[in-house]
From TrEMBL:
Taxonomic source organism: Chryseobacterium ureilyticum
Protein name: Glyoxylase I family protein
Transmembrane spans: none
Domain VOC: 2-125
Keyword S-adenosyl-L-methionine belongs to the record: no
GO molecular function: metal ion binding
Pfam families for this protein: Glyoxalase (PF00903)
SUPFAM superfamilies in alphabetical order: Glyoxalase/Bleomycin resistance protein/Dihydroxybiphenyl dioxygenase
Record flagged with keyword Metal-binding: yes
Gene3D superfamilies the record matches: 2,3-Dihydroxybiphenyl 1,2-Dioxygenase, domain 1
Record keywords, A-Z: Metal-binding
């Protein structure tokens, strides 16, 4: 029917929480500390749409996450103004690629990354 959510395990919960809520401006639905796992679970939304579960775990394993590595390639967010979004993220201290053009759709997009180097794409709709 549709994707319900995407789960992300971060290496530094406070850094990633700040990134997703203050840099990307996702809304907090709920934040839970799970004592038995010594782990946080933060449910995030874009507007009213639940999209990301952000987890913390003690000593999570490393995983390659370059766009061409096996596994999840990247997360893509749709935006109305690609230049405005890129400028906003650069002003907040993110390193962003130059804007590119999708050869099949003619739409503009660029990549940046989260604090754990998970590639993030912003795609103009």
């Amino acid at each position: 029917m549709k994707i319900h959510h995407i789960a992300i395990i971060c290496s530094d919960y406070e850094v990633s929480k700040k990134f997703y809520t203050e840099i990307l401006n996702l809304n907090i639905i709920r934040e839970v500390y799970r004592e038995e796992r010594q782990s946080y679970k933060l449910d995030l939304a874009i507007g009213e749409h639940y999209v990301i579960e952000l987890f913390s775990f003690l000593d999570p394993l490393k995983r390659p996450s370059r766009p061409e590595a096996c596994g999840l390639r990247h997360l893509a967010f749709s935006v109305e103004n690609i230049t405005g979004k890129r400028n906003e993220l650069v002003e907040k201290g993110l390193v962003c690629e130059e804007i590119r053009i999708d050869e099949f759709t003619g739409k503009e997009f660029f990549f940046t990354q989260d604090p754990d180097q998970l590639p993030l794409e912003f795609y103009e709709m």
